[in-house]
Amino acid sequence: MYWLILFFVFIFLLTISQLMLNMLAMHQVHINRWVWALASFLIVILPKIILPQINVLLSWGTYILCGIFTINFMIEQHRWFVTSKL
């Protein structure tokens, strides 16, 4: 049951990431892949440093954003790898 829930959470995060990247591409906004990587770490680390006793809902929100930013980083990294002439 755990793996099924984890699978659906990943599909949800992947869908949100794709929608976010498509919306940004429609508005011709391109965010560097390393900004996504840095944001995925900072979105979890900074609130924990600033507020050690963080609310559970806010903590879950930062974890969800971390997942979205991490998947965006992986998508952009793959896009860069495919389009580069390595």
Report on this structure:
This protein is mainly α and 86 residues long. It has one domain. Helix content is 83%, strand content 0%. It has three helices and no strands. The protein has helices at residues 2-26, 33-50, 56-83. Helix 1 (2-26) crosses helix 3 (56-83) and helix 2 runs antiparallel to helix 3.
Kindly report how far apart the N and C termini lie.
Answer: 41 Å
In the residues, how many domains can be counted?
1
Average pLDDT: 91
Order of helices and strands: HHH
Radius of gyration: 15 Å
Helix content: over 70%
> What structural class do you assign from the helix and strand content?
mainly alpha
Number of continuous helical runs: 3
The general outline is globular
Beta strand count? 0
Strand content: under 5%
How is the biggest beta sheet arranged? none
Which blocks of ≥5 consecutive residues have pLDDT under 50? none
How do the strands and helices of this protein lay out in sequence?
Layout: H1 2-26, H2 33-50, H3 56-83
Helix pairs in contact: 1-3, 2-3
GO molecular function: kinase activity
Keywords: Kinase, Membrane, Transferase, Transmembrane, Transmembrane helix
Transmembrane segments: 6-25, 34-51, 57-75
